[in-house]
Specification:
There is one protein chain. This protein is of the alpha/beta class and about 200 residues long. The chain has a domain at about 5-145: NAD(P)-binding Rossmann-like Domain (Rossmann fold). Helices cover about 35% and strands about 20% of the residues. The protein has helices at about 5-10, 15-25, 45-55, 70, 105-110, 130-135, 155-165, 180-190, and strands spanning about 35-40, 60-65, 80, 95-100, 115-120, 145, 175-180, 195-200. The strands form two sheets. The protein has a six-stranded parallel sheet. A two-stranded parallel sheet has the order 7-8. Helix 4 (about 70) links the parallel strand 2 (about 60-65) and strand 3 (about 80). Helix 2 packs across helix 3 and helix 2 packs across helix 7. The longest helix has 13 residues, at about 155-165.
Length: about 200
Amino acid sequence: MPKNVSFQQAAASAEGVHYAINFINKVKLKAGQRVLVNGASGSIGSAMVQLLVYYGLEVTATSNSACMDWISSKGIHLVIDYEKEDFTKLEETFDYVFDAVGKSTFGKCKPLLKENGIYISSELGPKAQNPILSLLGLVKSGKKVKFPFPHDIKGSLEMIKRITEEGKFDPLIDKEYALPDISEAYTYVETGQKSGNVILNIT
């Protein structure tokens, strides 16, 4: 557990961050590269944008309206309110498109990718296409899909501990619930409207 955080912050710095790390470790990040993150107001996305900024990338991100100021404060180049604007209509291209909520597709995002750009999603995609497209990418050049099979939980936790203690990471916490209110917490999460992480306080 990092020395400079609460138990609530530590709990919110585990699962979503682990998946975010297993997005970015599938590609060779270089400072100055341009990346678009769809779903920066979610648990995975809010961690991912901070990691990408930490590595020196130029980040464009989509967010719900409630979290736009929080996301912008993390050094993001541009934040798009997905409730008002379709990010797939952008007229610029990126080295990577990371769909942290799995609500888009390679087909929709392909025009946003540079010649050898890479698309990664947190979900299987329609008809489980993302793992299949990832395998096809092993024998094809050009724009590709990679699928983020997560591994090395210990390594993820060690990394996030380090950058948290450096003051480079701050987990996004939406709401906290007491343990007797766990049913209410699950009901809220299942609405699909949460931002970042929802915490259970066990006392």
